[in-house]
Design brief:
The complex is a heterodimer of chains A (368) and B (606).
Chain A (H helix, E strand, L loop, with lengths): L19 E10 L2 E11 L4 E5 L6 H9 L6 E6 L2 E5 L2 E2 L7 E4 L11 H6 L7 H14 L15 H14 L4 E5 L7 H18 L2 E6 L2 H7 L2 E6 L2 E6 L1 H6 L4 H6 L4 E8 L2 E4 L2 E4 L8 E6 L4 E4 L7 E10 L3 E9 L8 E9 L9 E6 L4 E5 L1
Parallel strand pairs in A: 3-9, 3-10, 7-8, 8-9
Antiparallel strand pairs in A: 1-2, 1-4, 4-5, 5-6, 10-11, 12-13, 12-15, 13-14, 15-21, 16-20, 17-18, 17-20, 18-19
Chain B lengths: L9 H7 L8 H17 L4 H27 L4 H41 E2 L3 H7 L8 H11 L5 H10 L15 H12 L1 H13 L2 H9 L4 H30 L2 H5 L5 H12 L2 H25 L3 H4 L11 E2 L2 H37 L3 H34 L3 H10 L7 H27 L6 H5 L1 H24 L3 H9 L4 H12 L1 H17 L2 H6 L7 H11 L5 H24 L15 H4 L7
Parallel strand pairs in B: 1-2
Helix pairs in contact in B: 3-14, 3-17, 3-18, 3-19, 4-8, 4-9, 4-11, 4-13, 4-16, 6-8, 6-16, 9-11, 10-11, 11-14, 13-14, 14-19, 16-27, 17-18, 17-21, 17-24, 21-24, 24-27, 26-27
The chains are: A alpha+beta (368), B mainly alpha (606).
Chain lengths: 368, 606
């Protein structure tokens, strides 16, 4: 195995990164398919987030890359060098891969410095200590190097876990729901810190999360998974703005769902008609609208539709409104309830009449 | 096909993975075989798997040899055994099991309920004092009561004085050398096997449900019989089956009290008639009873999942009793402690002191203590090492075949000591004679009985029998170490062996130490296998006591018995520490906080 960055020299500047390539992975537990033909590649310095509902296979994919599970079909390579396939399995300790766990997995019987130094077995003893202290200072915990893990707060433990994984300059960083054991405020800070550390290290990183916000914040690219498949892969922007399926649209944000019928390439709804290219006349479609794509006006504006506020929830910078839209005559006069976001600077009262326009960028039409 | 955004990425992979095209048939076959092996055994190293398989084989060897000996037939002895020995032995053993079973379930669950559901004077002391009879092995309680209960012994003389009788002819208690005496005595020292898990369950798991039952208007009796007892059924079943295994395993008490159980019959068939096939035939019958006991236990805890729902239930808060009822509860709880521990231990203490002042510390006792400590220490270290490997192998490979192998390796606890020893005699003789012949032919040097003569056979039996104790304890300790620790260490470059040394050995240390203590004391107390497998003229404290009792010279056995009881107190101290002096104040790592409930299965003493 060739390791271009000899850890004993440990340059401060980022070295040439490494590339991960996994292709055609299939995996079964008992009798259920956990992964069905999954392929990913991660470029040097890139952060790829695996997101999806629980049971979608994202954690299994991470464990396969780490070598904690054996590959049943398909292959995994780092820098073109095969590390796992159906008939070859490089042991996890030989993969040179850093792993950060949901529960941090700090060794309770070792000091922080010893924890961080654990993976530096190839270095001479004196240098291990130096590198460990250097890593701890990068996460702001150098002065607590001799303490035991259990006296630290959750966020501090997380930083030690990160320092430990990064200390040996692994070819690849894997993070398994690293923030899910932290409370909400801390979580945001840790995202910022972790992102900086990962980018500084210039390693290719794969992070598993079930939290779409987290994925969008951290990722260069997101692989959205469902039922053992990658259903969409792309930048956070692309996944949010251009979802390929109702599943993807709903995963990354709340949506209003309106059933409609296509007429001359347009889906007709009480809120207006929207482009539905290539859909046959009379076919049923579903129209998904993001709440922020619905613009609320106190007074009528050109092209607006009137609606009534059913309930209003003040959420700080914006108010979440539940609106009732009277359907057009053609739809039999059924009332439609939708959610919209309105500026928090204005007061919205239940029963108030308001007027809606729609931003076409937040509207997605899919065949029903 | 999933969406790889840039298809060019697939190119370098193919060059790295050349064997996919044009695989030779033999290679494909090898790949298939390896896939099947991995499926069955998981990713265990060959070393761990080999040790596990070897240990499983060695533990099962006595059973296999037993079957083959029994199948050889015992010639003309069989009709005799079938007509005169087996029916009585079966009847006696089954009567004993039923009687002891009833006693341990009633005393064990009743006492557990009293000390957990009610608060009364002395409850805190009784809480652990009720465990004390566990320190008295069955043969010692019988040994003590034979003298205590003697018609002219202290107990009956005192009772007669109290009642105004002057001689044993006017008044005497029924003879203890009988079936009911045996049931009573075994029940008195074995009930803690039920008491311990039942108490843990009432305390830890049943709290909320019992409170619910009370708020729904059920009185204490109704709550006990309708809620607490059904909830505790799995725990009681586990405890009772352990107690019954002990009763079946017992040789001393039954023999001293004149009850001809299967164990006694096996022993006398071998010792008096020198018929290995005959002994093996009875031993097989006994194994069948053990298997039905295990099946019964499984059946009785079939709905365990109800009780074992892992929620952190509220601890049961005991209800304060009125003074009168409190004193009554205290008196009731004192009965088993007094009869099962204070009386026999007090008797031994007095007798030992008398002996000591008369003869001083005898050389024999010193030598035997040394023998006992040495052989127990060797067996303990060996059992712990093997158990560590087994537990770690199991952790590495959560695969069905590996698990089955490990389970096989810890089957020894279910094999009664006499059965194990009889099963070992065949292979040992064969091995020792083989080595001797070989050595004589090659070097003109007789090795004698290499295994049987050196005590290695005894160590083998101890390890086989108590491996479940150590591996159970170590597994429980390992289960507190999150798997992410292993994964983290592996991904940081540590090999499986280094992970075991750096992570599992230090983190598992409390569990390993506790397991070592339990095995050590079990070895010290072991009698039936020791009697059959010890080298000539090698006496342990237990065999010394047995010999004295067989000769009817009780007083000089008292010192040996007292030493065994003192050793037996050590695990009880450990147990009560684990269940009571829990975290308060000091911060513990999750690994240290082993709760007493989980150490129950590891407690199947000799």
């Amino acid at each position: 195995m060739k390791t271009p960055d000899n850890p004993s020299t440990m340059p401060a500047a980022p070295v040439t990164g490494h590339r991960l390539l996994a292709s055609g992975l299939r995996h079964r537990y008992d009798r259920s398919d956990v992964l069905r033909d999954v392929s990913i590649d991660v470029a040097p310095g890139e952060i790829l987030c695996l997101v999806g509902p629980s049971g979608c296979g994202k954690s299994t994919l991470l464990r396969l890359i780490a070598g904690l599970e054996r590959v049943q079909a398909g292959s995994i390579a780092i820098d073109g060098e095969l590390i796992a396939s159906a008939d070859s399995h490089v042991l996890p300790e030989r993969r040179d891969v850093g792993l950060v766990f949901q529960d941090f997995a700090l060794f309770p019987h070792m000091s922080l410095a010893d924890n961080v130094a654990f993976g530096l077995g190839k270095l001479p003893r004196a240098q291990r200590k130096v590198v460990a202290l250097d890593m701890l200072s990068r996460v702001g915990l150098a002065d607590r190097a001799d303490e035991a893990p259990h006296v630290l707060s959750g966020g501090q433990q997380q930083r030690v876990a990160l320092a430990r994984a990064l200390a040996s300059r692994p070819r690849l960083m894997l993070l398994d729901e690293p923030f899910s054991n932290l409370d909400v405020r801390l979580r945001h800070r840790m995202r910022v810190d972790t992102l900086r550390l990962l980018k500084d290290s210039n390693s290719a990183s794969v992070m598993v999360t079930h939290d779409p916000d987290e994925a969008m914040f951290m990722a260069d690219r997101i692989a959205l998974m469902n039922e053992g498949r990658i259903v969409q892969l792309g930048s956070p922007d692309a996944l949010y703005r251009n979802p390929h399926s109702p599943f993807a649209a709903e995963f990354f944000g709340d949506v209003n769902r309106i059933d409609a019928v296509a007429v001359q390439g347009r889906a007709v709804t009480p809120l207006g008609a929207f482009d539905a290219p290539g859909v046959a006349d009379g076919a049923r479609v579903q129209v998904l609208l993001r709440p922020e794509a619905i613009l609320v006006h106190p007074q009528p504006v050109p092209g607006s539709v009137s609606a009534r506020v059913a309930a209003s929830h003040m959420l700080g910078s914006y108010s979440l409104l539940e609106l009732t839209v009277q359907a057009a005559h053609a739809d039999g006069g059924r009332a439609l309830t939708i959610q919209a976001q309105a500026p928090g600077s204005l007061r919205w009262l239940a029963g108030q009449e308001i007027h809606l326009t729609v931003n076409p960028a937040g509207i997605f039409v899919f065949p029903a | 096909m999933a969406s790889t955004s840039d298809g060019a990425g697939a190119a370098p992979l193919r060059s790295a993975d050349p064997q996919h095209n044009g695989v030779a048939p033999s290679r494909r076959y090898a790949v298939f075989v390896r896939a099947v092996l991995i499926r069955l055994f998981g990713g265990v190293g060959a070393g761990g798997l080999f040790v596990t398989a070897l240990v499983a084989l060695l533990v099962l060897l006595p059973v296999l040899s037993l079957a083959s000996h029994a199948l050889q037939g015992s010639g003309e002895l069989w009709p005799h055994l079938a007509a005169y020995v087996l029916p009585q032995a079966l009847r006696d053993s089954l009567t004993l099991l039923v009687g002891v079973g009833l006693m341990v379930v009633c005393i064990g669950s009743g006492m557990a309920w009293l000390v957990t559901a009610y608060d009364f004077p002395g409850r805190r002391v009784l809480d652990w004092a009720l465990l004390l009879p566990l320190a008295v092995p069955t043969y010692i309680v019988a040994f003590a009561y034979l003298d205590l209960w003697h018609p002219v012994g202290a107990l009956q003389t005192g009772l007669r004085e109290l009642l105004g009788y002057s001689s044993p002819r006017e008044f005497r208690l029924p003879d203890i050398r009988s079936m009911w005496g045996c049931i009573l005595l075994l029940g008195l020292v074995l009930y803690p096997y039920v008491y311990l898990p039942a108490r843990a369950l009432f305390q830890m798991q049943a709290g909320g449900l019992i409170d619910a039952s009370r708020t729904l208007g059920a009185g204490p009796w109704r709550t006990f019989f309708r809620v607490a007892l059904p909830l505790a059924r799995p725990a009681i079943a586990v405890g009772a089956s352990l107690a019954l295994m002990e009763a079946l395993n017992d040789i001393g008490a039954a023999e001293f009290l004149g009850v001809r159980t299967l164990t006694v019959s096996i022993y006398s068939t071998w010792v008096n008639r020198s018929s290995l096939p005959g002994a093996a035939q009875i031993a097989l019958v006994m194994l069948a009873i053990v298997l039905s006991l295990i099946a019964l236990e499984r059946w009785a805890r079939r709905r365990q999942r109800y009780a074992a729902s892992g929620r952190q239930a509220a601890r049961l808060s005991p209800r304060r009793l009125s003074t009168l009822r409190g004193l009554l509860a205290l008196a009731v709880c004192c009965i088993p402690v007094t009869l099962g521990f204070i009386m026999p231990a007090g008797y031994l203490l007095v007798e030992a002191a008398r002996r000591f002042s008369f003869a001083g510390l005898e050389q024999v006792i010193l030598r035997e203590t040394l023998n006992t400590l040495m052989i127990s220490a060797v067996a303990t270290v060996l059992a712990t090492l093997i158990a560590f490997v087994l537990a770690y192998t199991l952790r590495l490979a959560r695969a069905p075949a590996t698990q089955a192998l490990v389970r096989c390796a810890s089957l020894g606890y279910a094999i009664p000591g006499t059965v194990l020893a009889i099963g070992l005699l065949g292979p040992l003789g064969w091995f020792d004679n083989g080595i001797d012949t070989l050595s004589s032919q090659l070097f003109g040097l007789s090795t004698g009985l290499l295994l049987a003569g050196s005590g290695a056979a005894l160590v083998y039996a101890y390890v086989a029998r108590f491996l479940a104790v150590s591996s159970g304890g170590i597994e429980a300790g390992f289960s507190k170490i999150p798997h992410s620790m292993d994964d983290a260490a592996r991904s940081l470059g540590a090999t499986a062996g280094r992970v075991a040394r750096r992570i599992h050995a230090p983190l598992g240390r409390p569990a390993i130490a506790a397991a070592m203590l339990l095995v050590f004391v079990d070895c010290m107390k072991e009698l039936p296998a020791t009697l059959l497998l010890r080298p000539l003229n090698f006496e342990t404290l237990a065999t010394h006591l047995y010999g004295e009792a067989a000769r009817g010279t009780y007083e000089s056995g008292a010192v040996a018995a007292l030493l065994i009881v003192l050793a037996g107190l050590l695990p009880i101290v450990l147990l009560s520490r684990l269940s009571h002096h829990a975290p308060a104040g000091k911060r513990r790592t999750p690994v240290e906080a082993v709760d007493a409930a989980e150490s129950v299965p590891t407690l199947n003493a000799s």
